[in-house]
From TrEMBL:
UBZ4-type domain segment(s): 12-39
Region (Disordered): 41-75, 133-152
Taxonomic placement: Eukaryota, Metazoa, Chordata, Craniata, Vertebrata
The entry's keywords: ATP-binding, DNA damage, DNA repair, DNA replication, Metal-binding, Nucleotide-binding, Zinc, Zinc-finger
Family statement drawn from the similarity comment of this UniProt entry: Belongs to the AAA ATPase family. RarA/MGS1/WRNIP1 subfamily.
Matching PANTHER family: ATPASE WRNIP1 (PTHR13779:SF7), WERNER HELICASE-INTERACTING PROTEIN 1 FAMILY MEMBER (PTHR13779)
An example Gene Ontology molecular-function term: enzyme activator activity
Gene3D superfamilies: 1.10.8.60, 1.20.272.10, Classic Zinc Finger, DNA polymerase III clamp loader subunits, C-terminal domain, P-loop containing nucleotide triphosphate hydrolases
Name this protein carries in UniProt: ATPase WRNIP1
Gene name for this UniProt entry: wrnip1
One Pfam family hit: AAA
Entry annotated with the keyword DNA-binding: no
Naturally occurring in which organism (per UniProt): Pundamilia nyererei
Segments of skewed composition (Polar residues): 134-148
Length: 604
């Protein structure tokens, strides 16, 4: 078999370790096995006869990779004979990818690590797609691998509710068919959907509120890439990743593309946490296609992402999930957990399994699901975790077995859901974009004399934790900018409201702010003062040459020298005259100007 040499197929790829030809679909799996085998084989009996030969070092003829003495030396068996691209940075822990994800966790060197290697060695007998998929399903997946929903379908509802992971992570979707609420972005008729299906994914910035599906969409892309073998997916978080770790991933991506012809998709969660210099690290590599960058952020990328990086990426705006989308997500979770909806016939096979043994029958009111969909404010993570909390709390309170050893029934009501959520989950960030959105809505509602809308936006800000003094300062500004001379008393009302808020604070001052908001909304509006002063600023900034001097008769003359120079000469003291005084107060070149009606002349 070793002596057989046939012409390579047109789409074949040569293994850089054993120099054998493989198809594009099987080279990646073979390369992993070929490299791991050279490190972990302890005797000839453990190797497959058709496996690759021992890899010789490229650094010297005398340096040959020796078989590991035991499984405990797997972590230290990376000799100089291995390619440097597969060696992680020794000064830092290796970046978690799909290759080294098997070795994550506090495990003894001779247990999980050796078992994961043996599973990979057994794959050599069949490199087909079905065997590879089966093998990967047996491997322990990392927390961010996106395998939660498959695991959920294999476990019982009681087990799912008892796991340490949040329900939102366990039930994370793996396909676009299970992904709800973002039809404008990834719907069947969207521009981005064909790119996802064909795996021609550009660099992306996913922008949206918390719990709208940014990370889930990235994991769906990762799952599809792993199944088709078209790309390698790496997940990092900007909150805990250094620039050196990013450079190490990029270096691996360069070697992966050069040796294996496989792209690398790099997902950066909370990318806005990187500063401008850290974001610049991605620029040349995104530009040349070494990595496909997918960044997730809750902040406006126009302000938080480097403009140069933003120009190289496509921004996808994910909207807050609607009540209907939240209902679909919660219904899918209830069906997966095997929970029955009170008053509805069971069509889920898992519901029948609840009667086996001594498992309790779990019911939930439809009204409880509807309330949860409304109160979570479009955050799927809050909704799913609240469902988990409500069910777990009732299971803990109820004895699982009745006196006659028959299973009891557990009912989750609307009151249980409200008790778990406490109050409406209001999306409001005092330092983020929602802060400016709400104050803008309040200002425009008062300008439009809509007192009900003004009260609503005021409540959104105060209930979300906004500083009442900030709102009061904005009301003082509004009193002069939009009410102005139409009701001069509005400024007095706004200043009084600010002082009252400063004296007593929240929550007592909320009614004071509400009174001031309604007064300003009902007051007549005039922007003449605002426009006139804006014309003054425009006149000063557009003036060519030095500004005109102050007329001599308007200048102060406190000294004899100034009087001798003509300061204050010819000034008419108005109180000394009973009739109106004819006197110029503007510089000579501006005499006769009216800033209330003035318009800047456009240059031709």
């Amino acid at each position: 078999m070793a002596n057989e040499k046939t012409a390579a197929a047109p789409d074949s790829v040569q293994c850089p370790v054993c120099f054998k030809d493989f198809t594009s679909a099987t080279i990646n799996g073979h390369l992993d096995i070929c490299l791991l085998k050279g490190v972990t084989d302890s005797s000839p009996s453990t190797a497959d006869e058709s496996g690759p030969p021992v890899k010789k070092s490229r650094t010297g003829p005398e340096a040959i990779i020796k078989p590991a003495a035991s499984s405990s030396s797997v972590a230290s068996a990376q000799s100089p004979g291995m390619f440097s691209l597969f060696q992680s940075n020794r000064a830092k822990p290796p970046v978690q990818t799909e290759r080294n994800g098997l070795f994550v966790g506090k495990q003894s060197p001779g247990s999980a690590a050796s078992k994961g290697v043996k599973r990979l060695l057994n794959e050599e007998a069949d490199l087909g797609a079905a065997a590879t998929e089966t093998l990967r399903s047996q491997q322990p997946a990392p927390a961010s691998s996106g395998q939660g929903l498959k695991t959920a379908k294999r476990l019982s509802p009681r087990t799912l509710l008892a796991v340490d992971k949040p329900l939102a992570e366990v039930l994370r979707p793996e396909t676009l068919e299970e992904y709800f609420g973002q039809n404008k972005v990834v719907g069947e008729q969207s521009l981005f959907r064909p790119l996802l299906d064909s795996q021609e994914i550009p660099s992306l910035i996913l922008w949206g509120p918390p719990g709208c599906g940014k990370t889930t969409l990235a994991h769906i892309i990762a799952s599809t890439s792993k199944k088709k073998g078209t790309a390698r997916f790496v997940t990092l978080s900007a909150t805990s990743t250094s620039t050196n770790e990013v450079r190490e991933v990029i270096k691996q991506a360069q070697n992966e593309l050069r040796l294996c012809k496989r792209k690398t998709i790099l997902f950066i969660d909370e990318i806005h946490r990187f500063n401008k210099s850290q974001q610049d690290t991605f620029l040349p590599h995104v530009e040349c296609g070494t990595v496909t960058l997918i960044g997730a952020t809750t902040e406006n990328p126009s302000f938080q992402v480097n403009a140069a990086l933003l120009s190289r990426c496509k921004v996808l705006v994910l909207e807050k999930l609607s009540v209907e989308a939240m209902g679909s997500i919660l219904n899918r979770a209830v069906a997966t957990l095997g929970i029955r909806i009170q008053g509805q016939d069971s069509t889920n096979p898992k519901d029948e399994d609840q009667t086996d043994g001594h498992r309790p029958k779990i019911y939930i009111q439809q009204k409880a699901l509807d309330t949860m969909a409304y109160l979570c404010d479009g955050d799927a993570r809050v909704g799913l975790n609240s469902l988990q909390l409500a069910v777990q709390a009732q299971m803990s309170k109820t004895n699982l077995l009745a006196p006659d050893d028959s299973p009891q029934e557990i009912l989750v009501t609307e009151e249980h859901v409200k008790e778990g959520l406490q109050r409406s989950h209001i999306l409001y960030d005092k330092a983020g974009e929602e802060h400016y959105n709400c104050i803008s809505a309040l200002h425009k509602s008062m300008r439009g004399s809509h007192e009900n809308a003004s009260l609503y936006w005021l409540g959104r800000m105060l209930e979300g934790g906004e500083d009442p003094l900030y709102v009061a300062r904005r009301l003082v500004r509004f009193a002069s900018e939009d009410v102005g001379m139409a009701d001069p008393a509005a400024l007095t009302q706004a200043v009084s409201a600010f002082q009252a808020c400063h004296f007593i604070g929240m929550p007592e001052c909320e009614v004071i702010l509400a009174q001031c908001v309604v007064y300003l909304a009902r007051a007549p509006k005039s922007v003449s003062i605002y426009k006139a002063y804006d014309n003054v600023k425009t006149c000063l900034r557009s003036h060519k040459g030095p500004l005109p001097p102050v007329p001599l008769h308007l200048r102060n003359a406190p000294t004899r020298l100034m009087k001798q120079l003509g300061y204050s000469k010819g000034y008419k003291y108005n109180p000394a005259f009973s009739d109106p005084v004819e006197q110029e107060y503007l510089p000579e070149e501006l005499q006769g100007i009216n800033f209330f009606t003035w318009k800047q002349k456009t240059q031709k």
